[in-house]
Amino acid sequence: MKIKEKEKVLWDRCIDFHGHECGGVTIGFMAALYAIELLGLEKDENGGISKDEEVVCVAENDACGIDAISVILGCSVGKGNLLFHMRGKQAFSFYNRKTGKAVRLVLKNRPLGMSREEAFEYFQNADYRNIFDVSEATIKLPEKAKIFSSFDCDSCGESTGANWIRLSGDKKLCLDCYESYNRFDV
Q1: Would you state the pLDDT for residue 44?
Q2: Longest dimension (CA), the chain
Q3: CA atoms lying within 13 Å on the CB side of residue 111
Q4: N or C: at which end does the chain have fewer Cβ atoms within 10 angstroms?
């Protein structure tokens, strides 16, 4: 791969986290590096970017590349700065909360007829500036993650975040216990 020595450490961290080398991790790795450049992000002393929610990624897939984005940019579902807008596309919108900059990267089609191994080699040797189409982010910057109160479900007793509770008469029910009203299911 055409990676600089300082990027080799990041690559190795991505592979350690993901478990193996593959084209998908390479795509996420390249997308994260390109986002750093386009959004003017600065790496910390450990090579990471986002300690909290400074950087946000909205991914349009849940494939292997997400792991590389998590490792490099510090985006994670738990912190609330990795969100999914599932469209089955190798597309990622990145946001820098500090500067307000945002960008959407969409993977360009690779040459036709490549095997998986050839595609892996192709992405490994590509310059990230040449494998993504760059445009404005089309999804509005998501608000910061909220912390919700929890309630015990009156049916199963399991603690559930308030935003997932449904009222049924005077009972608070989790989604698993709640039966929605639908006149067409009769």
Answers
A1: 66
A2: 64
A3: 10
A4: C
* Cα–Cα distance for residue pair 61/59, rounded to 1 Å: 5
Is the per-residue pLDDT at 186 higher than 60? no
Question: For residue 23, what are the CA distances in angstroms to 30, 56, 117, 164?
Answer: 10, 23, 8, 36
Long-range CB contacts (< 8 A, 24+ apart) of 10-15? 10/47, 10/71, 10/72, 13/47, 13/71, 13/72, 14/67, 14/68, 14/71, 14/72
Question: What are the pLDDT digits (tens) for 119-168?
Answer: 889 999 999 999 999 999 999 998 888 888 999 999 999 999 999 999 99
Pick from 34-38, 128-132, 178-182: least confident: 178-182
Using CA atoms, how far apart are residues 88 and 109, in angstroms rounded to an integer? 14
Q: Name all domains of the chain by residue range, CATH numbers in brackets.
A: 5-135 (3.30.1330.130), 150-181 (no CATH)
Rg (the chain; Cα; Å): 20
Quote the DSSP letter at residue 112. Answer: T
Beta bridge partners of 171: 168
